[in-house]
Design brief:
- By secondary structure, the protein is mainly alpha-helical.
- The protein has 30 helices and three strands.
- The protein has helices spanning about 15-25, 70-85, 90-95, 100-115, 120-135, 140-150, 155-165, 175-185, 190-205, 210-220, 235-240, 245-260, 265-275, 285-295, 295-310, 310-325, 330-340, 345-360, 365-375, 380-395, 400-415, 435-450, 450-465, 470-490, 495-500, 510-515, 520-535, 535-545, 560-570, 575-590; strands at about 30-35, 40-50, 55-60.
- A three-stranded antiparallel sheet has the order 1-2-3.
- It is elongated and about 95 Å long.
Length: about 600
């Protein structure tokens, strides 16, 4: 049918291929030949763009007719490899060269397309098909790990990353470094991941993957290491310069633009991202971020309607972005109230009340925050109690000793074994940790009550509890925090700081975003205080400045951190910065206590 009248019997030339491609509306065409000689098949194939430009030529042979299908697969793999270019920043060509399964490669390419359009659930399915078709396909495991991590399935992501890491020796040095860096990050070694990505972009400055993933590590992990997420801006901009259609870079740069109050750039980046993939997993959240950051009331209302019907992960991501980056506390509170009011389960309504209580504290409304927890107590008593203990232990809240002692007594009397296991994320993150949280909180409250010896007994009890699978980093963080608080209460400031500085493992950022305990804000706030106390004020400013950049549950610490920054800038002789920090604190908390 495609050959058309007047071409029957003519030689298959490039000109004829161009004519047929134009008639069919094809982007490319293939010409080739198969020759049989003494029982052996020799074949060649060449792929051309629609204008007749040669893209790639491949050859192959089969010793007998039975090898025909393997020969066809060999040619197809070679053509696909060439189609995706020579750049080391593009994994597609390497993928075609590291699997012998055409089915695996086709699934990988489908997954790659979905992944680059931020349709992560679709990409998970495709990459799983690729690993099923070829279990030795290292890059398929590598991309599957990334897609699973993007959908908050961290344990399966770690398993997939381990598979890629085991098979990395077949890869080029560039791809092997990518696999090793991602494996370090996913297993809680963000510093090592950053080191490897930095080395990669130094060796391969045109590495699109390297620049984007370096930015991603900095954006997600910097706040937990005393640095701002805004430092990720340059790597993301380098990635976008290498590929102006890179959706992931657009999305992250939009968040950074919101953080920096560059609403014009935010609007432009969101428009670009939506034009690239209006159906991406993050499209609803981007529209919400733009509307709330630009204070577009009609857009805010539409975003609330969209989010009310969205999947839980979409809601959580969008809510965090708006609360943290939009600079619109009234709008963020309205979004939270609207979303949690329509919660389908008691558990999620309890989580909503706990979240709203954190927003109350962020704005200095202590009474309202504890009232929210009273409401939550009827829905989920265990979570209401642990959150009440957390709030009572905050060092900057004006809470009487009697009230702190009463909360501690209630925690001591509580049996965590009676707590109903949570079903929904993120409450389910803590199902095996209630006993640990109880002892951590009783220890903190003992410190607040100036009873360090009693707190030391709680620290010992915390250290003796069994460590649930996957909770090592969190429990190390809780233990360090409590030990440092006790040392500071005893006047051993330097020793307390040394305890915090010995930490190594990171909490995975998606856990930290979704949990007041995994967020680790206590440890970072305390670390900044200790740094200032020993005269390392510039370092303290960095730690205070990185608070409330990644989790809504950090927000109660924001106004106190800003007030401390104001005091530090005055100490350093910079009244302008001191006044700016003080003003930002008062926007959140008008009646600031003198901490």
């Amino acid at each position: 049918m495609l050959s058309g009248a007047g071409l029957i019997g003519e030689a298959w030339t490039v000109e004829r291929g161009r004519w047929l491609a134009g008639r069919a509306g094809a982007w490319s065409f293939v010409l080739g030949s198969v020759v049989e000689s003494a029982g052996r098949l020799e074949a060649s194939a060449a792929m051309y763009d629609a204008d007749g430009t040669l893209v790639v030529r491949v050859e192959g042979r089969a010793e007998e007719d039975t090898g025909l299908f393997e020969l066809v697969d060999h040619l197809a793999l070679g053509l696909l490899a060439g189609r995706h270019g020579e750049s080391v920043s593009d994994l597609s060509r390497l993928a075609a060269l590291t699997t012998e399964s055409l089915a695996a490669l086709k699934a990988w390419l489908a997954g790659e397309q979905a992944f680059r359009l931020a349709r992560y659930l679709d990409s998970v399915d495709a990459f799983r098909r690729a690993t099923d078709a070829d279990p030795t396909f290292a890059l398929a495991w590598h991309r599957l790990a990334a897609a699973l991590a993007a959908t908050a399935m961290i344990e399966p992501a770690r398993e997939a990353s381990a598979e890629a890491h085991r098979r990395r020796e077949r890869l080029s040095e560039h791809a092997r470094t990518l696999v090793e860096a991602q494996h370090a990050w996913i297993t809680g070694q963000s510093g090592e991941a950053e080191r490897r990505y930095a080395a990669l972009v130094t060796a391969w400055p045109e590495s699109l993957e390297g620049w984007f993933l370096l930015g991603d590590v900095l954006f997600h992990s910097n706040p937990y290491r005393g640095r701002s997420a805004v430092q990720a801006r340059e790597p993301f901009e380098r990635a976008l310069a290498l590929d102006p259609d890179h959706l992931g870079a657009m999305i992250q740069l939009a968040r950074i633009a919101a953080m920096e109050r560059r609403t014009g750039d935010l609007g432009s980046l969101v428009a670009q991202a939506l034009a690239r993939s209006a159906g991406s997993d993050q499209a609803v959240g981007l529209r919400a971020l733009r509307a709330f950051a630009c204070r577009e009331r009609a857009g805010e209302d539409e975003a609330i309607r969209e989010l009310a019907a969205a999947r839980g992960l979409v809601i959580a991501r969008a809510f965090s972005d708006v609360v943290l980056y939009a600079g619109n506390p009234d709008g963020a509170e309205r979004l939270a109230q609207e979303l949690f009011a329509t919660a389908r389960s008691e558990e999620f309504r309890a989580f909503g009340l706990i979240t709203l209580a954190h927003l109350d504290l962020a704005r200095g409304r202590t009474v309202e925050a504890f009232d929210r927890l009273q409401e939550a107590d009827r829905l989920d008593p265990a979570w209401a109690l642990t959150t009440r203990g957390l709030f009572a232990s905050f060092p900057f809240l004006p809470i009487e000793d009697d009230r702190r002692a009463a909360v501690r007594k209630e925690l001591v009397a509580w049996d965590p074994g009676t707590a109903r296991p949570a079903v929904a994320v993120p409450l389910a993150f803590h199902n095996e940790l209630q006993a640990h949280l109880r002892v951590f909180l009783t220890g903190l409250l003992a410190v607040r009550l100036r009873l360090p010896d009693l707190a030391a007994l709680d620290a010992e009890a915390l250290a003796e509890l069994p460590v649930p699978e996957g909770a090592t980093a969190l429990l190390q963080h809780l233990g360090r925090t409590l030990d440092a608080e006790i040392l500071r209460a005893r006047g051993e400031t330097g020793a307390a700081l040394a305890v915090l500085e010995q930490g190594r493992l990171d909490v995975w950022f998606q856990y930290a975003v979704a949990s007041p305990f995994y967020a680790g804000t206590f440890e970072r706030f305390l670390r900044a205080d200790l740094l200032a106390a020993v005269g390392r004020v510039p370092e303290a400013l960095r730690w205070w400045g990185a608070i409330a950049e990644r989790s809504p549950f950090e927000l109660p610490f924001l106004a106190p951190a800003l007030r401390r920054q104001a005091e530090a800038w005055r100490t350093l002789g910079d009244p302008a910065r001191a006044a700016d920090a003080e003003a930002r604190a008062r926007v959140l908390w008008a009646d600031l206590p003198s901490w």
